[in-house]
Design goal:
seven-stranded mixed sheet; 34% helix; 11 strands; 259 residues; Aminopeptidase; globular; alpha/beta
Length: 259
């Protein structure tokens, strides 16, 4: 008998809203939740650590929900902590189930059996990405244009160093749409918006954009917002409005350039 990770009364591995939304945008949130399956006993970590950025992208889901509502766009969000399994890492890489996050050792991720690893992939990682894939396939079959937006947030202080940028626009091989979003956000002169910093998308460090965006030839962008700016409702509403406007402006420019 295999290792069962999620109990029958625990939440599903993903959240989906607005599947029939009329927008060209599809929004995904890879690190939306800090939830840990009961069977994993908080991975041996104190509650204080599970509230930090190592467990989830603080504020990202709140921003994404508001964006999806404003745009009438479908939203798919991962529903368990990236400390259980990171849904933006290829499951073949070591960082998929981190044994160390920043400087914190994750006791519950050390010495896992093959069955335990397989359960995390089968019950959390694959259902989330299968749902994203099914949504994109459905839109393709209906000849609906799609622009993929991966919404993230980043800590304001990483390993003791404060980040000065308010947000960042990330991409890998294809900068077409991301560059338009960056231009739109930078029109707000009081904002510092980084270009492919402090992270950049790559096949080694990312999964969602390479596999669902680039592999399909979809216009796409990954957006990071500093977490101290979206840790409450007011900040999430402000930034959702800001990013929504930037996405709409970029969409119009992108469609003009493709005409």
């Amino acid at each position: 008998m295999g290792f069962a990770l999620l109990a029958a009364d625990e939440p599903p591995p993903f959240i989906e809203v607005g599947r029939q939304g009329r927008s060209n945008f599809v929004i995904v949130v890879d690190h939306a939740s800090r939830r840990i399956p009961r069977r994993l006993a908080d991975l041996g970590l104190p509650t204080s650590e599970l509230q930090r950025h190592i467990a989830w992208d603080i504020g990202a889901l709140g921003v994404a929900r508001r964006m999806a509502a404003a745009l009438d766009a479908p939203l798919v969000a991962q529903n368990y902590s990236r400390l259980v399994i990171d849904c933006n890492r290829d499951p073949k890489v070591a960082e998929s189930i981190p044994r160390l996050s920043e400087s914190i050792e994750i006791p519950g991720n050390i010495g896992l059996s093959d069955a335990e690893v397989a359960a995390r992939r089968a019950e959390i990682f694959h259902p989330y990405h299968d749902q994203v894939r099914a949504l994109l396939d459905e839109r393709l079959a209906a000849a609906r244009p799609t622009i993929l937006v991966a919404q993230h947030s980043m800590t304001d202080i990483y390993k003791g160093v404060r980040r000065d940028m308010h947000a960042a626009v990330l991409y890998n091989r294809d900068r077409r749409f991301a560059g338009l979003v960056l231009d739109a956000l930078r029109r707000e002169v009081d904002l510092v918006v980084a270009d492919n910093e402090p992270y950049f998308v790559s096949d080694d460090t990312d999964y969602t954009i390479p596999r669902h965006g680039e592999a399909r030839g979809l216009p796409h962008v990954e957006i990071e917002i500093r977490q101290d700016l979206v840790s409450d409702d007011a900040g999430q509403a402000l930034w959702a409005g800001r990013i929504t406007r930037a996405l709409q402006e970029a969409e119009q420019a992108f469609l003009r350039s493709a005409a």
